[in-house]
Every structure is written in C-alpha cells, then in structure tokens.
From TrEMBL, chain A:
Location of this chain's protein in the cell: Mitochondrion
Protein name: Acyl carrier protein
Main location, first listed in the record: mitochondrion
Cited function: Carrier of the growing fatty acid chain in fatty acid biosynthesis.
SUPFAM superfamilies in the cross-refs: ACP-like (SSF47336)
Domain Carrier per the UniProt entry, residue ranges: 45-120
Organism: Penstemon davidsonii
UniProt-listed InterPro entries: ACP, ACP-like_sf, PP-bd_ACP, Ppantetheine_attach_site
Entry similarity comment: Belongs to the acyl carrier protein (ACP) family.
From TrEMBL, chain B:
Name used for this protein in its record: NADH dehydrogenase [ubiquinone] 1 beta subcomplex subunit 9
Alphabetized UniProt keyword annotations: Acetylation, Electron transport, Membrane, Mitochondrion, Mitochondrion inner membrane, Phosphoprotein, Respiratory chain, Transport
Ranges annotated as spanning the membrane: none
Organism the protein comes from: Penstemon davidsonii
Subcellular location: Mitochondrion inner membrane
Organism lineage: Eukaryota, Viridiplantae, Streptophyta, Embryophyta, Tracheophyta
Length: 123, 114
C-alpha cells in the first residue's frame, strides 16, 4: 500500500533542472544521472515493442492474443513456471539481472514493461 | 489447521518452487556450453517439475522442495554467468568516460611550483 502510494506520488513529481554549467562554451546539465556503462536510455515504446516480441516468440503463447496489457496466467493460459521462463527470457533480452524476489512479482505485461523501463541498466 | 494458515503455507511453497525453478533454470544455462545444448536440458528440468505437479500432501511437498533445494545447491555451477554490470560481473564498478567538454587537469594546484 505504502509503496504503491509512494510510486504514485513519485510519478507526478518533476524536479526542475535549474542549475546548468557552462564548460568550454557547451552547456551541460549539472544534474547527471548515475549511470556507469551507458548514458542513453530506452524509450517506453521500444521497451514495449521488444517485450511484446519476446512474449510472442514464446512457444506456448498464441501471438494473436498478445496485447500490451495481458496477464501471463489469466489471459495467456500460462502457468507459474511458464511466467518464470518468460521473465528469464526478458532478462536475457534486456541484459538484466533481476533479483529472484522481484522477478517473482512480475506476472503481467504492463508490470514487465514498467519494471524494465525504470531499470537503469536495461539496454 | 485453519484454512487461512493452510493457504498461506501453500502460497509460500509455490513461491519457493518458482524461485527454485528460476535458479535451476539459470544454472542449467550456466552448465550448458551452447544454446542448443541448453534447450533439451531445460525441457528435462521442466519435466522434473511437471512430474510432481499434482502432489497434494503439504508435508510431502515440503520435503520435496527441501530435497530439490539441497540438490540444486549441491550441483550449483562454481563460476556462473553474471551480467557484466552486476556485482561480480566484468564491468562492475568500471568508470564511464567523462562527458564531452570536461577536461582533467593532472597537475592541479602545482602548476607554478614545478
């Protein structure tokens, strides 16, 4: 409950970037996100497309049923072990390492897209 | 035993099974040298889980999960694949290149003395 409220609040708060720094004539934003290996980030549409591709290529899934808001077990007729396999396929697609407890919670497509889009290391 | 505690225990067991399956599947990929060797191994692993799909006795399930976790622990890969950015990975804590326009002054503070 508290975490849901927190994420809802955080989604609506925007912190304006006011400080900018000028170095050698080029303007750089003073706030630099913590990123160690890559600076570009995936946009939401690309994440959604690639997630959809992964789900559609899973052998037990009927590709015509896959829409961006399906639940793996309720809508696609998969069981819990299938969704484990799908999450693992998503990890490989986006080069992620999702902790076991968090991966266990990902049971629907919107949740998967949301998680991967917000993951700083997704690529 | 009340229904609520039974259901809670079943839910906990289901979660343990999912996590065990996830770890075992990842470990199967560690042991398989190539993708085409991994697929039959993954199918065999899935078969081993599917064989006990209809077990109902909660104590028996408990013992089977414990046995499965022990077996997985025994046959764990000694040098598993780790995603490069994750702790233990090959890119962990590597520094990114500085953004364009940033200049590193190596003799900062000693320009006039030497």
């Amino acid at each position: 409950m508290a975490s849901a409220l927190k994420s809802t609040v955080l989604r609506h708060i925007r912190v304006p970037i006011s400080q900018t720094l000028t170095v050698n004539g080029s303007r750089l934003t003073a706030v630099r996100l913590m990123s160690s290996s890559h600076d570009d980030h995936l946009d939401k549409k690309e994440v959604a497309d690639r997630v959809l591709d992964v789900i559609k290529s899973y052998p037990k899934v009927d590709p015509s049923k896959v829409t961006p808001d399906v639940h793996f077990q309720k809508d696609l007729g998969l069981d819990s072990l299938d969704s484990v396999e799908i999450v693992m396929a998503l990890e490989e697609e986006f080069k992620l390492d999702i902790p076991d407890k968090e991966a266990d919670k990902i049971d629907s497509l919107p949740l998967a897209i949301e998680y991967i889009y917000n993951h700083p290391m997704a690529s | 035993m009340s229904v609520a505690s039974y259901l809670a225990r079943r839910a906990a067991q289901k979660e343990r099974v999912r996590i065990l399956y996830r770890r075992a599947l990842k470990d199967t990929l560690n042991w398989a040298v190539h993708r085409h060797l991994f697929y039959p191994d993954a199918d065999a692993l899935r078969e081993r889980f599917e064989a006990n799909r209809n077990v109902e006795d909660i104590e028996l399930i408990e013992r089977m999960i414990t046995a499965g976790e022990a077996a997985h622990d025994k046959w764990r890969h000694p040098d598993p694949y780790i995603v490069p950015w994750a702790p233990g990975g090959s890119k962990f804590c590597r520094n990114p290149t500085p953004p364009a326009g940033i200049e590193i002054v190596y003799n900062y503070g000693r320009e006039d003395n030497d």
